Amino acid sequence: MALGVPSTGEAGRLSDLEPWSGEPPRDEFFWLSQINKATFVVNTRLGLLDRSKVPAWCRALKRVIARAAKPGSPRPRMYVRYEPLLVAEAGIEVTLMHAGRSSQDMHATFQRAMIRDETLALMKALNRVRAALLRLCDENRSTIVPCYTNGVAAQPDSLAHAWLGHLEGFRRDFDSLREFWARLNLSPMGTTVLNGTPWPLDRRAMASYLGFDGIVDNAYDAGQISAVDVPVEAGLKLAGPLLHVTQFIQDVMTQYAQPRPWILVTSTYASSAMPQKRNPGSLIDVRRDANEVLGRVSSILFRAHDLAPGMYDVKDEQLNRTILADAARVLEAFAGVLGLLRVNAERALEELNLDWTASQNIADVMMQRFGIPFREGHRFASELVTYARQRSLTPLTLSYSEAKAVYEGMVEKEGLAGIPKEFPFGEKDFRETLDPRAIVEGRRTEGGPQAPELERLSKGARERLQADEAWTGGVESKLQAAESRLEKDFTALCA
């Protein structure tokens, strides 16, 4: 993961070269070029530029872009460094195109566009995580595992139900990014510096050609306030998905300390000293990288702290873009690791039957079937667990007669009135009360793990994912269409 390139502040970066190969990057130079193309198209249409001179200027712009497309060529990141390249090709008269423009609104525009690219990539990666996790849920609807509270085994649950719960967190992360998109995808172009320009610009046409859904309404806000808000909000949006990644991994790692874990990752590395060890390095790597990016999110807040409006610190698009891109890479890696998880359902059930995660169900059933107050049922279950653990007994090895004796001894010792003196369970019913699978299937709560609700929850998760994948696909198509339309109309001007 790369940290941002050192910056000299408002004067620009130390270097305009960034390693790349293949297609030219969608960097500051790319977006300054797009803004220049859109300026030629829109302002010529408005009559703000001499139509007889524009074709030569457009061809000069094409030459500047082509030269910068060669690996190793300068790709200026600031307009004050870009413009001399255009002047060298077309002469000083080409600067007539700068009517009603400023580095302030141009930079605010490409900063949003670059964050927009990274945000869309982040959302697509998040959907890949959701799809991988949903596949695991479908494969493990009948798998019963121990779930934990306060780091201690608490109750049995369907693994699919628990992981659908994790999936809901990632779904909310997507919803949050989609809400952010509505604020992000607005164009500052045409606001110039602080209060607009006397030139009659068509801001909405410019926004449309650059793929924006609308404009930042207030000219002062465009470059001074929202230009800070956008990178700060983009960084804060990373907290949700990255925390959910680390929570999921830690949930899996909780059981990984067992001699025989019931969830394994198939990509491991061996210890150099201990032959028996198979370390879940892929899980650990993703957790490390997620936490590393989370740590850098705080840098955005500190760069924004105590700034007068218009200061450059937090607008550093290289730092902001790198953090977003690294977060997307973490999600991509996590989606890959999810595909490496293997679940041993028999071993999970064995683990449940080694401990007393069914004890709350005893109290619930005693109250539901026999009218015994929950606190009395809870007291019996607690005493039963204490008795069993002192004798190394499990739910499978504790005899019915011992459970009966514990209950009846408690009632007699405490002189409890209003509850049955004799143990109310038959042996078959008592065994079923301790059966993890029967406990899960016996749930009646809306949103619970019982089969009908599990089917409903899975269906809802799948439908929401499909809708969100369609949304990202639609957004991507719309952005591509805007770029194609701009290229077509710009090319026509060059003729």
From TrEMBL:
What keywords does the record list, in alphabetical order? Lyase
Q: Which InterPro entries match?
A: Arg_succ_lyase_C (IPR029419), Argininosuccinate_lyase (IPR009049), Fumarase/histidase_N (IPR024083), Fumarate_lyase_N (IPR022761), L-Aspartase-like (IPR008948)
Return the annotated region ranges for Disordered.
1-20
SUPFAM superfamilies xref list: L-aspartase-like
Q: Pinpoint the Fumarate lyase N-terminal domain residues.
A: 97-295
Q: Which Pfam families match?
A: ASL_C2, Lyase_1
UniProt keyword Lyase, yes or no: yes
Query: Which positions fall inside the Argininosuccinate lyase C-terminal domain?
Result: 361-441
| Molecular-function annotations in GO | lyase activity
Q: This protein is called what? A: Lyase family protein
Organism of origin is Mesosutterella faecium
Q: What is the lineage of its organism?
A: Bacteria, Pseudomonadati, Pseudomonadota, Betaproteobacteria, Burkholderiales
